[in-house]
Design a protein that fits this description.
Elements lengths: L2 H13 L2 E2 L5 E4 H7 L5 H17 L4 H4 E9 L5 E9 L1 H9 L6 H51 L5 H13 L3 H7 L14 H20 L5 H21 L13 H22 L1
Antiparallel strand pairs: 1-2, 2-4, 3-4
Helix pairs in contact: 3-5, 5-6, 6-9, 6-11, 7-10, 9-10
Length: 279
């Protein structure tokens, strides 16, 4: 396929992309029909039907990707009538292309186009989740520093901060910090939180924030009082997670947060270089 043709088809496909009020990208089936080179709606619906089956087989809910809608079209007499149409997600378009007539040049292009677009969206989602986890880890670090400072100011020393944090872990996980480090295969010289999934980072942060608030509010002046407060708060967070079917100690470890940070930083630098190259 020649480069000019590919560029023209890319522009055409992207020009027909629309967004819902919620920012969900979609194509209308009546538009996609012509983009894929189908002259007859009924023939196009055969590909749509096969795509719906493929969607169901891949454990996706059909209505999440194929939404029936009505569309007003102009008639020769100057009047209008409503015809059936379908709002299609990028994934639905990809499945239709995969189940279309492979002899059509438009189908061959669409198969690659939507595969790349779907993969790109997956990568963006992955990066956003990684950035959220990194942000949660940094937030926990700051909160624990603040807790350490509060302990120092109100008890006269913070040498027991590590002990208090470990007691919180015991309450949150139902097992010791060391036991969780062994379970998650965390290196001895690394903190458990560097391998914790986002939900655990936020759970630990929330419990620590409550401890800070109550330690200040109630003027807790001893290590034992702060410890008891921190244990109670982590137990409360654990109970909330359990009530929602989440057992903290059963969650798998996540990727080393340092690797995630290096990867995000590297990609950011590459993006900046690419932008500089456009100047």
């Amino acid at each position: 396929m020649k480069k000019d043709l590919i560029n023209n088809m890319t522009d055409t496909f992207e020009a027909h992309a629309q967004e819902t009020e919620g920012g969900i990208e979609f194509w209308l089936a009546r538009d996609l029909q012509h983009l894929l080179g189908y002259a007859k709606w009924d023939n196009f619906l055969n590909a749509v039907s096969k795509a719906k089956t493929a969607c169901e087989v891949s454990d996706h809910t059909i209505k999440d990707h194929f939404a029936d809608v009505g569309k007003m079209v102009d008639l020769g007499s100057g009047s209008q009538r409503e015809v059936d149409d379908i709002m299609l997600t990028r994934f639905a378009c990809y499945l239709i292309a995969q189940n279309g007539d492979p002899r059509k040049q438009e189908i061959a292009f669409a198969q690659t186009y939507f595969a790349i677009q779907t993969r790109r969206a997956e990568l963006i989602e992955q990066r956003l989740l990684e950035a959220e986890r990194l942000s949660a880890r940094k937030k926990l670090t700051q909160t624990e520093k603040e807790l350490s400072q509060v302990i120092y100011e109100q008890t006269g020393g913070n040498k027991n901060f590590g002990i208090i944090r470990n007691k919180g872990d015991q309450a949150l996980f139902g097992k010791s910090t060391q036991a969780m480090k062994s379970q998650w295969k965390v290196p001895a010289n690394r903190p458990l939180a560097d391998f914790a999934p986002t939900i655990i980072l936020k759970a630990k942060d929330f419990a620590a924030e409550i401890t800070i608030f109550n330690a200040k509010e109630r003027q807790l002046g001893s290590e034992s009082a702060v410890s008891q407060e921190h244990i109670f708060n982590n137990q409360a967070v654990r109970d909330t997670l359990l009530s929602r079917g989440i057992r903290p100690e059963n969650l798998p470890a996540d990727e080393d947060i340092k690797k995630v940070e290096r990867r995000l930083t590297s990609e950011q630098r590459k993006s900046l270089k690419n932008l500089d190259g456009l100047d």
